[in-house]
Amino acid sequence: MINQGVPSRIFDRTRIFRGAMLSPGAIVTFVLVLFAVSLVVFLSFRINDGSLLGAGISVQNFATVISDPLYGLVVLRSLTIAGLVTLATVVTAYPVAYYLAFHAGQRRSLILFLVTLPFWTSYLLRVFAWKIVLAYNGVLNSALMLSGLSSEPSTLFLNTPSAVVLTLAHAYAPFAILPIFVALETIPRSLVEAAADLGARPFTTFRRVILPNSMPGVLSAAVVVFVPTVGDYVTPALIGGPTSTMIGSLVQAQFGKANDWPFGAALAVMVMLVILAVVLVVRQADRLFGSRT
């Protein structure tokens, strides 16, 4: 007679094991993500009365953010800088990922090591390194003066939006290279060979086969770069100066010097909504490319 209890006990053990493996991640997600976001949303509807969590319920914080043109200008500047960073990062990362996927050969491991090497150093150290390069008496100005191309140091390199774009594009380059590389690596080589057998030239093969099939990786890289750069405040503060103030700097100021947590939370919520809208647009574009390929 077959013991019906054995499969049931095995199923129960499997379910307990899965629950035990998933519970740490679920707890971390709830405590560090859902609870934190819920607290920020709750704070955004409070009134600043000097206490930690504010008092009362009001939409005045959101009304101020929407009605004051200063915040609209800063949000627009943040989106513009983040968009330029994303464009620059993806455009420069794609050739590296393409070389890794199709031409690196035995050098692939070494190049991947070099790509991930910036992760070994602090983000803050990389920002300070660019500040040393772009400063008034920095490496770039010194090199221009030694080469005779400039007679005096220039103030055009540091404390500009271009410096912020350059620094952020360098800092987030690995985040763009790796998703694009994975997408290119998963393209069946038989498709490339079939295109060549049908007489397609290399550029035509790239345009009709490789690029469309790698677009999910490109869009993923764009999201991974765009989302953190919108709210970045360290790089604009150290590299950009007053003319490059982004929304992250305003949020940090409200939670810091201004000590107005409800208004800072409202700014953060508005940024999250803008990022959510961008992510939904990218997701729709991903579906469009997926249906075409």
Give the CATH superfamily of the largest domain: MetI-like
Structural class: mainly alpha
CATH topology of the largest domain: MetI-like fold
Helix share of residues? over 70%
The total beta strand count reads: 0
Number of helices: 13
Characterize the biggest β-sheet.
none
CATH top level class name of the largest domain = Mainly Alpha
Rg computed from alpha carbons, rounded to a whole number of angstroms: 25 Å
End-to-end C-alpha gap: 54 Å
Morphology: globular
Low-confidence stretches: none
In the CATH hierarchy, the architecture of the largest domain is Orthogonal Bundle
Q: How much beta, percentage-wise?
A: under 5%
Helix-strand sequence: HHHHHHHHHHHHH
Number of domains: 2
Mean pLDDT: 85
Write the layout of secondary structure elements.
Layout: H1 5-44, H2 60-67, H3 69-102, H4 108-116, H5 123-134, H6 139-146, H7 161-171, H8 173-185, H9 189-197, H10 202-230, H11 234-240, H12 247-255, H13 261-292
Could you characterize what this model shows?
With 293 residues, this protein is mainly alpha-helical. It has 2 domains: 1-44; 60-292, MetI-like (MetI-like fold, Orthogonal Bundle). The chain is 75% helix and 0% strand. The protein is built from 13 helices and no strands. The chain has helices at 5-44, 60-67, 69-102, 108-116, 123-134, 139-146, 161-171, 173-185, 189-197, 202-230, 234-240, 247-255, 261-292. α7 (161-171) crosses α11 (234-240). It starts with a helix and ends with a helix. The mean pLDDT is 85.
